[in-house]
Amino acid sequence: MSTGRAPEFAYAGGVLATGLADVTTDPAALDSRGWWAVVVTYEGKITCARFEHVRPAPHPDGPWRPPGAWTSSLDEPAYRAGVETIRAAIADGVVYQANLCRVLSAPIAPDADIAGLGARLAAGNPAPHAMTVRLPGLAVACASPELYLAREGAAVTSRPIKGTGRTARDLLPKDRAENVMIVDLVRNDLGRVAGTGTVRVPGLCEIEDHPGLVHLVSTVEARIAPGAGWPELLAATFPPGSVTGAPKASALALLEELEPVPRGPYCGAIGWVDADARRGALAVGIRTFWQEDGLLRFGTGAGITWGSDPRREWHETELKAARLLEVASG
Question: Is this entry keyworded Transferase (predicted)?
Fold first, then answer.
């Protein structure tokens, strides 16, 4: 298979995968054989790509040009109005928390290569769950700090992030409350597919430093029940709780009303699975760029609770985007 411009590849954790052998939308393939790159859009479209050649290597490079002017799917007044709508829904008991997002878009040069952007992100904004993928009709450069699902055999780990500031002093009681709500949601999601009594929380609201900001991060662990695999894990836990809200079904319905464009790979899942070794890691698709229709897109958002200030939440979305947009602009 060929994009007509450059060979397909996936890069994550110092490993380069080339030689595209298979592409499927069936997550059961992740329990079969081989090394797979995985991209799941927030809307649930799954792409699993098996590669023949997987080896340690530096990140591939390619031509990159700064994108044009950015536009947002929600401007500041619209975003702040959305925050107020969510606060009203919380007052009415519809949701406890919801993650309101917006998608930024900018025109890019025809010869701009996602490999070039991925290499620049790796140098300028290193992230623990970064991944770059180029497939037919799909080009993604992700610098995610957030682990959605890691699997080693039957052992599963999720590390939801809620709470963001420039420094630890910026974190508020609202951030901790938001984190605890999402941890409860993740526990419940994993509980649908976990063995009885195996879900635990070994780390709660720990402060982590990342380029340009800090996050509150918690760790949830479980062991999946016998007979369960990747399809059951995804069905029980997707979309990730940290980018939806609680209760999840109510938050999803509310966000569909408030967000004018699809999120795409942003807030979905991006990562790899080694089916032979029965291990893999999928990131929450935040801090993520993707190419679509001659545009470079990037999503940013914030978790809204009753204690949210609309202006502060808008600025949180700007903070999360700022460093990544600087890197993309060279």
Answer: yes
